[in-house]
Write a structure and sequence with these properties.
Strand content: under 5%
Low-confidence stretches: none
Structural class: mainly alpha
Number of domains: 1
Helix content: over 70%
Radius of gyration: 17 Å
Length: 143
Amino acid sequence: MSLSTIALRAIPGAFILNSGIGKLGMPAEMAEGLQGMAAKGVPPLEKLTPEQFAKFLSYGEIAVGASLLLPFVPNRIAGAVLAAFSGSLVSMYLRTPEMTESDGVRPSQDGTAVAKDTWLLAIAGALLLAEKKQTKQKKSLKA
């Protein structure tokens, strides 16, 4: 694993893992508020109870963070996991009108904190592409 790949994985992995651990045992009221926002990006989430959503969210973030931090998880898998996670966050951002300016893309004051999740999606893409580059390099060395 290259130093650049370690940086791409360790920093967001630690941040997401910490976020998931911090959400363990969250109160139902907090879970309900987060669930309302999350369901805008992933509508099936509104079918869960707030308690189920809280567990889903905290365990999901822990799993995403761990997949990025564990060195034996291939870049392609870690990148795909991060892409699914960050893609749902970006979907929520784009589907919540008060988070964007009138053009539906640029963040409003309320959306700035969530718009940063587009960086996670870019990191996921870099991990997916890094794996392909490394695979090609390994094949050319064997030939």
